Amino acid sequence: MEELVGFCAQCGKPIHCLHGFLNGIVSRETETLYCFPCHDKQKETEHTTPDKCHK
């Protein structure tokens, strides 16, 4: 079974729930929905900036 959950906040791609599993990521900080490729890109850019706890 496939249900539309929402759209990626970054690219607008539709995100579905497939057989009970979310086909995307919900950001913990902002509770925003992202597709896997956009979430991976966001993680890559976060790792290029200094971590707040290591200043």
Question: Overview of this structure, please?
Answer:
The protein is α+β, with helices and mostly antiparallel strands. The chain has one domain (2-49). The protein has one helix at residues 36-48; strands at residues 2-7, 14-18, 21-22, 25-26, 33-34. The chain has a 3-stranded antiparallel sheet, with no helix packed on it. A two-stranded antiparallel ribbon has the order 4-5.
Q: What is the terminal separation in angstroms?
A: 47 Å
Give the spatial strand order of the biggest sheet. Answer: 1-2-3
The domain tally reads 1
Parts with pLDDT < 50 across at least 5 consecutive residues: none
Give the SSE order as H and E letters: EEEEEH
Oligomer: single chain
Radius of gyration: 13 Å
Distinct helical segment count? 1
